């Protein structure tokens, strides 16, 4: 790590650049609490202070003390600095540190930095830290953990590296609290490799150090690494706490790793870790995102204390698992019985529930009530849900009118939802209009072109399909490959879509071929309607055979005992052919299958999907 920060060996000069850049005018004063430490203030400071405190009666007493050479304690001195920063900005307040040179020490600065950080005034914290360097006030081991927390929240990696260099120069890089703060800072600043290097070089670690590394990996969506760190933590003999479990459960939720999530649930029970509101909410989220809503409900009912986040994950969990009515009932219970006030996230879950179930009238009502009843302004995500809801139900004109009535500029997601609805209902004219808007905003996303190609393919407009593909080739645009994962015996296996057979997958391909024959005897017909090539039907069928979710499904059938639910996670939306394929597999092979795609869950049981083919 020392090698990675050598470019910042002139740390004080880098920090001084920050001092000059901090020229904004912060609002609102903050209440500061400091231990008393009498200082003697001379009358020579009076001129500057009078300018800062004019027309503010609450500063009169302090000024009288200064004029009369009466002692002033730390509390009042730091209150003056806070008042100056909040009322006059950073540049003007820098003079206080110069004029009170010798009276403001590191203890005072540490106290105000901590108070600012705890109050989420992170620029204020950095300002005080830079003034320490400019005025010869040497930071100590108490300064760095707090200011690094503010740097992390500001996501200012360059400043963080400069501070790291100061730490090395002062010989404090072996301090466990400072090193832990560095791990946290690098992780939240998306420099997770640096976070890992600092962690590996720590001579001593505590549970907070492990938690910081787990948080950094979660923040950067490196969920497999979270599980690896948790295993390392256990091997090292470090005892996890509730915060650790929240981070690991978050990773399990994103991976769809139900078995590992259940193991963690049992581990917490055996080790008597508290089911507090944070752990309980993380458990509900994990079970819901792994498709086991019944377990999520049990955790919810067992929790003594719930907050708005707990209700939100329950409502969203119901929505993504196709239980729209349960989501709406939970929303009603939240506001009527529990007296919680819904927020924007609550309504996002409610609108998603309406969208997945096709509850158009209910969706309209809840969308209107956001502003009229609860005083919440719909965000772009809420408009996206409504466009999807209306468009998928066939109300394309109403969806377009809603877009045109938005108080904000529609983003690519809005136009993509409309284009997707046009694909479903075969409206080429409106689809081309949406395409123009979409490509103007997001010309390099391959998904946009594929939606348009599928729209043309539906109507067998192969000339148009070819033009879309030529446009993609000309712009060197590639689509995101389909990727699916399945958990078997606590191990997660990934499969990527292929255009043909890959070495080492012979057993899977053989099973898929056998399955295809059996399913066709049971009535399965390959859906080639969205295959966007003008080729023979047999070739289209072959191209659909090796979709990643089918590979994962065949692997699951090969490697798991009968009766075990197969749980698959896909990075993209499941295609129509795979959806039909999975329905018949669940009946012929008598296997329950759960697929979590990019939008929602599909639970296949006995030839029927939980989405009722509305997706």
Q: What do the pLDDT scores average to? A: 85
Unreliable residue stretches: 1-13, 18-60, 532-539
Strand order of the largest sheet: 4-3-5-6-7-8
Q: Which geometry do the CA atoms define?
A: globular
Describe this structure in words.
The protein is mainly alpha-helical. It is 62% helix and 5% strand. It has a 6-stranded mixed β-sheet, covered by helices on one side. Strands 1-2 form a two-stranded antiparallel sheet. A hairpin with a 4-residue loop joins β6 (593-596) and β7 (601-605). The longest helix is centred in the first third of the chain and has 26 residues, at 74-99. The radius of gyration is 30 Å and the shape is globular. Mean pLDDT is 85; it is low at 1-13, 18-60 and 532-539.
Short description, anyone?
With 615 residues, this protein is mainly alpha-helical. Helices cover 62% and strands 5% of the residues.
What structural keywords apply?
single chain; 615 residues; mainly alpha; six-stranded mixed β-sheet; 30 helices; 5% strand; globular
Question: What's the arrangement of secondary structure elements?
Answer:
Elements: H1 11-21, E1 39-40, H2 46-53, H3 60-67, E2 71-72, H4 74-99, H5 106-118, H6 122-134, H7 143-154, H8 157-169, H9 176-188, H10 192-200, H11 207-219, H12 223-235, H13 242-255, H14 258-270, H15 277-289, H16 293-302, H17 308-320, H18 324-336, H19 344-357, H20 360-372, H21 380-392, H22 396-404, H23 412-425, H24 428-441, H25 446-458, H26 462-474, E3 483-488, E4 491-496, H27 506-521, H28 537-545, H29 548-559, E5 566-570, H30 576-588, E6 593-596, E7 601-605, E8 608-609
Parallel strand pairs: 5-6
Antiparallel strand pairs: 1-2, 3-4, 3-5, 6-7, 7-8
Helix pairs in contact: 1-6, 1-8, 2-3, 2-4, 4-6, 5-6, 5-7, 6-7, 7-8, 7-9, 8-9, 9-10, 9-11, 10-11, 11-12, 11-13, 12-13, 13-14, 13-15, 15-16, 15-17, 16-17, 17-18, 17-19, 18-19, 19-20, 19-21, 20-21, 21-22, 21-23, 22-23, 23-24, 23-25, 24-25, 25-26, 27-29
């Amino acid at each position: 790590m020392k090698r990675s920060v050598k470019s910042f060996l002139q740390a004080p000069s880098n920090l001084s650049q920050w001092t000059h850049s901090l020229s904004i005018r912060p609002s609102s004063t903050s209440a500061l609490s400091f231990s008393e430490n009498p200082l003697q203030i001379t009358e020579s400071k009076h001129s500057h202070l009078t300018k800062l405190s004019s027309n503010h009666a609450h500063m009169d007493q302090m000024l009288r003390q200064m004029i009369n050479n009466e002692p002033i304690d730390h509390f009042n001195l730091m209150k003056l600095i806070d008042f100056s920063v909040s009322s006059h900005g950073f540049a003007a307040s820098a003079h206080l540190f110069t004029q009170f040179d010798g009276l403001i020490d590191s203890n005072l600065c540490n106290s105000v930095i901590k108070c600012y950080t705890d109050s989420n005034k992170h620029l204020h914290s950095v300002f005080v830290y830079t003034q320490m360097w400019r005025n010869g006030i040497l930071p100590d081991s108490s300064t760095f953990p707090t200011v690094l927390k503010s740097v992390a929240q500001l996501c200012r990696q360059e400043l963080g590296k400069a501070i790291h260099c100061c730490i090395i120069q002062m010989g404090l890089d072996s301090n466990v609290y400072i090193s832990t703060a560095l791990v946290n800072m690098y992780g939240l600043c998306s420099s997770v490799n640096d976070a890992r290097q600092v962690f590996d070089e720590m001579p001593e670690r505590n549970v907070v150090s492990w938690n910081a590394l787990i948080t950094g990996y979660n923040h950067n969506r490196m969920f497999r690494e979270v599980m690896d760190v948790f295993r390392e933590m256990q091997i090292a003999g470090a005892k996890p706490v509730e915060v650790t479990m929240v981070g690991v459960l978050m990773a399990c939720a994103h991976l769809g790793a139900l078995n590992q999530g259940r193991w963690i649930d049992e581990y917490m029970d055996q080790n008597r870790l508290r089911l507090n509101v944070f752990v309980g909410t993380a458990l509900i989220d994990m079970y819901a995102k792994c498709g086991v809503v019944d377990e999520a409900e049990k955790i919810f009912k067992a929790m003594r204390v719930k907050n708005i986040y707990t209700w939100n994950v329950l409502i969203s969990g119901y929505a993504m698992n196709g239980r729209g009515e349960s989501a709406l009932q939970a929303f009603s219970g939240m506001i009527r019985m529990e007296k919680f006030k819904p927020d924007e996230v609550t309504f996002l879950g409610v609108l998603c529930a309406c969208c997945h179930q096709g509850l158009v009238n209910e969706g309209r009502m809840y969308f209107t009530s956001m502003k009229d009843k609860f005083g919440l302004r719909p965000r772009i995500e809420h408009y996206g849900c409504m466009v999807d809801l209306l468009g998928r139900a066939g109300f394309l004109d109403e969806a377009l009118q809603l877009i045109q009535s938005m108080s904000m500029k529609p983003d690519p997601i809005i136009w993509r939802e409309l284009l997707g609805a046009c694909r479903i209902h075969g409206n080429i004219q409106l689809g081309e209009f949406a395409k123009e808007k979409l490509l103007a905003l997001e010309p390099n996303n391959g998904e946009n072109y594929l939606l348009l190609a599928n729209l043309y393919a539906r109507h067998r407009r192969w000339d148009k399909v070819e033009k879309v593909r030529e446009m993609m080739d000309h712009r060197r645009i590639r689509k995101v490959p389909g990727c699916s994962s399945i958990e078997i015996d606590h191990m997660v296996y990934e499969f990527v879509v292929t255009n043909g057979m890959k070495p080492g997958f012979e057993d899977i391909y053989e099973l898929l071929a056998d399955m295809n024959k059996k399913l066709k005897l049971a009535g399965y017909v390959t859906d080639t309607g969205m295959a966007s090539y003008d080729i023979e039907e047999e070739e289209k069928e072959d191209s659909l055979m090796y979709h990643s979710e089918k590979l994962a499904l065949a692997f699951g059938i090969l490697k798991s005992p009968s009766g075990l639910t197969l749980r698959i996670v896909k990075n993209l939306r499941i295609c129509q052919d795979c959806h039909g394929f999975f329905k018949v597999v669940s009946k012929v092979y008598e296997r329950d299958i759960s697929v979590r795609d990019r939008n929602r869950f599909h639970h296949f049981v006995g030839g029927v999907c939980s989405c009722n083919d509305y997706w």
